[in-house]
Amino acid sequence: MVRDDQTYPSKNEAGFAAWLAKPDMQGGLVIALLQPAKTQVYTSDFKWVKDECSTLAYLDESLAFVNGSGGLTTTSVFDAFPFITEPISSEGLSKEATDAYNTFLDMLEAKKPEVVFACWRVNGQELHFSGKGLGRTTKVESLELSSGHVVRVVNGFHPSYTANFCANESCFRRLFTMELCKAFCELNAVWREDKWMDILRQKCQGRTRELMEERGRDGEQLSRKGGRVLRGSREDNSARKHKAYIKSFDNGLQCLKQTFDHMISPTYKSQSSWDLYAFFVFTQNTSEGICDALLAVSEAMKRVKLETSMPDSSLVELSNHIGLQTHNFLKDDIPSLLHYPKGLYKNLWSSQFATSTSQGLKSSMEKITIRFIENLTDSFSGSSKSWTYTPDLLHSAFKDIAISFEESLGKEYDNHQQTRVLNDLNSVDTLSAPFSTLSLSSSRDEGPARKYNSIKIIFKYSLLQLRSTRSLL
Description:
Layout: H1 11-21, E1 29-33, H2 46-52, H3 54-67, E2 76-79, H4 95-111, E3 115-118, E4 141-144, E5 150-155, H5 159-165, H6 170-186, H7 195-217, H8 238-262, H9 266-270, H10 273-284, H11 286-300, H12 302-306, H13 313-337, H14 348-351, H15 360-378, E6 380-382, E7 387-389, H16 391-438, H17 446-469
Parallel strand pairs: 1-2, 1-3, 3-5
Antiparallel strand pairs: 4-5, 6-7
């Protein structure tokens, strides 16, 4: 195609678009993005080109998490406006944009996918196969191509939103992964909406409004363009970005403090495992806080990985802040909580549960928090006058508690669901017995068995759904 400036896509540019569009087969899933990055450099090394674009690199990681290690090599990615790098006007499509959009429709016609994951939209325009906006609908549209082939369209949002503009906000990562999982499940028509999914969508919409207000007060705008962004190419205010990470870390650390405080309270001692689950998930939203803290610690790790003599001063500030606040948490907050003098005590927290007989989620949380304190303490060294910390060890401590916490929540949820199903089965058997004795049918004993088998199948199906998105809770 010819652009308005009379230029053609280069061989490497066209080759990279073809590489993103693989695999060369009809059907399956297509992820639809908006357009290429304007400053993208194209070479014959398509993997390098992908890695230079933080948006595509994040999408590759997300695909690997949801659908296996193949990432972008096993899932087709189309641009709604291929080869067009100028912003798409919300007032109407130019001839160049119209031609590009028609090319996109031709690509869909050739591919004939079952599902399109729509991660693009143009404000003010309702175009076929576009998204509706972040978390704005749960409906899966069925759209017909000119050939009559019907495509199911799952609403998404551009991964650049998560990879670049709100990288410190774990709720957007959870939502993007959840919607991506929904798109894959739609291939087999096995997706089932649940209440927590709408809660997450509403949470992200509310957080978007808050960010727009916050950045508006700072004289900035939250980007809604939804285009790809290259590493290091965006005129980014590093100080603002790392200030946001500091806020995320402080919020996450506060969640952890509340968790530790709760675990020595009388309420904790009388709680069942399921009550504790409800406290973490619905009352405190602890998981999100821990994930936000981990994102900040991961960002601070760039100071180590960059290996430069002159690192970004705001990155240094973030790293130092995380070290100081974590040190204070260990040296001041934990001893104060347990009425001990200030200091680093590796085994102080574990001594509180030495004779514990807790089971289920409570037992898991005690083990997880004990290991967290021990790992954090091991990451610090120094004297009474000065201290330092090992970034890798501190990062590992936060990563371990985030993963272990999610796994423990998932296990508790599964156990609770199984208990409910078994209780329902017992109720069915109890109610069925009197009616079975009155039945004149020769197959009267088959009724409860058929009921049991159907419930068991539904239960296994529910667990399949939960496991596909459990880590997002």
